[in-house]
Design a protein that fits this description.
This protein has 363 residues and is an all-alpha fold. It is built from 14 helices and no strands.
Length: 363
């Protein structure tokens, strides 16, 4: 190669380099930063979960309409209470509640109104269904919300301690006790507590009310104390049955983390065993427990039908039991949809938040 051509080649190469560095960046997916690609993947993941939740809600809406029409019995005849009613009066009642329409027309009207939040009028209460639900919701949230906070705290704390001392006497006791309580039917435990602590048995006096939410004669601070007094037994029933699941999930998750390298490294740095557990092991073991907590949070709206019925608690569970006895189709359908929607929405929220806690999910 001649010496004259060398400067020309260098100039050409420099021009190519300048064009590659100074020119516009190439377009396309490969040009996006890893953070942008990660954000796009997360949005696509979240959109898929939200779409799945919407499909599930519609499926619940359809199921709630057809399922409760399989219940034997005529709602109109149940509302008459066995009284002698003429055929014309029964026909008028059927027309009033739309039961004279073909099933397909009842379904289309039900879906159309439900999408606007109108679930119709209760057969037995002669009031809008959503008004009755709104009246009973605070009592359910008070009962199940209080129980949720208590059994979540107890379950996580005892589950972490049991796993950290795996095989000890305390671990064996807590695990066996939790499994025993988890297998006990909630209504049976509630009845046992009523017999023991409400009615009184042997040397044990009756200390708590047998049911209801209030005595009806208290006001102000005394009213709050009275409600808390009525709240004790149903909350104890729910906590005794539900804390076991949280304990077992937390214990299993922490046992999976026990042999991890990062815990060995933390101990090698001289950290105390208690700090290794609280700062390193427990936060990583909490990920499966978070999903369970969101499921339980959805169940706080669904209430505890058996517990509320046993203790005559005026919440959504007791209202659902009353509606089934008629059957009050609009109220039963609406409550079923509310219960299922709460669980679906909480599960979806857990799915959407999970990748923020563990970046490996949804990527």
């Amino acid at each position: 190669m001649s010496t004259e051509s060398t400067p020309a080649l260098l100039k050409s190469a420099a021009g190519v380099d300048a064009a590659q560095t100074d020119g516009p960046a190439p377009a396309g997916p490969s040009a996006r930063s890893p953070r942008a690609r990660s954000t796009t993947a997360y949005l696509r993941y979240a959109a898929g979960k939200l779409a799945g939740a919407a499909v599930s809600l519609f499926a619940v809406l359809v199921t709630s309409f057809f399922l409760f029409r399989l219940i034997p019995g005529d709602p109109v005849k149940q509302m008459t209470g066995g009284r002698q009613v003429s055929t014309e009066q029964i026909a008028a009642m059927r027309k009033e509640f739309g039961l004279d329409l073909p099933l397909w027309q009842q379904f289309t009207e039900y879906c159309g109104k439900a999408l606007t939040g109108d679930f119709g009028t209760s057969y037995q209460f002669h009031a809008p269904v959503m008004d009755k639900i709104s009246e009973a919701l605070p009592a359910t949230l008070l009962l199940t919300g209080t129980a949720f906070v208590i059994y979540t705290a107890i379950g996580i704390w005892l589950g972490a301690r049991s796993a950290w001392r795996n095989g000890s006497a305390g671990d064996r006791f807590h695990t066996a006790f939790a499994l025993t309580l988890y297998s006990v039917p909630s209504f049976w435990l509630g009845l046992l507590l009523i017999i023991t602590l409400s009615v009184g048995i042997g040397p044990i006096p009756g200390m708590f009310p047998t049911g209801g939410m209030e005595s009806g004669s208290e006001t102000g601070f005394a009213y709050a104390v009275d409600v808390a007094h009525h709240l004790v037994l149903p909350v104890v029933t729910l906590v005794a049955v539900e804390y076991a699941r949280t304990l077992l999930v937390m214990r299993s998750s922490l046992l999976d983390e026990m042999g991890s390298d990062y815990l060995t490294t933390a101990r090698a740095k001289g950290l105390r065993d208690d700090l290794v557990r609280r700062r390193h092991a427990v936060p990583n073991a909490m990920l499966p427990t978070v999903t369970l907590l969101f499921v339980n949070l959805g169940n706080t709206v669904a209430g505890a039908i058996l517990v509320e019925t046993v203790f005559s608690w005026p919440g959504l569970g007791g209202l659902f039991y009353q509606a089934l006895s008629v059957p009050d189709l609009p109220l039963v359908q609406a409550l079923f949809f509310v219960f299922a929607a709460a669980v679906i929405l909480m599960n979806t929220l857990a799915d959407v938040l999970y990748p923020l806690l563990d970046p490996r999910v949804g990527r």
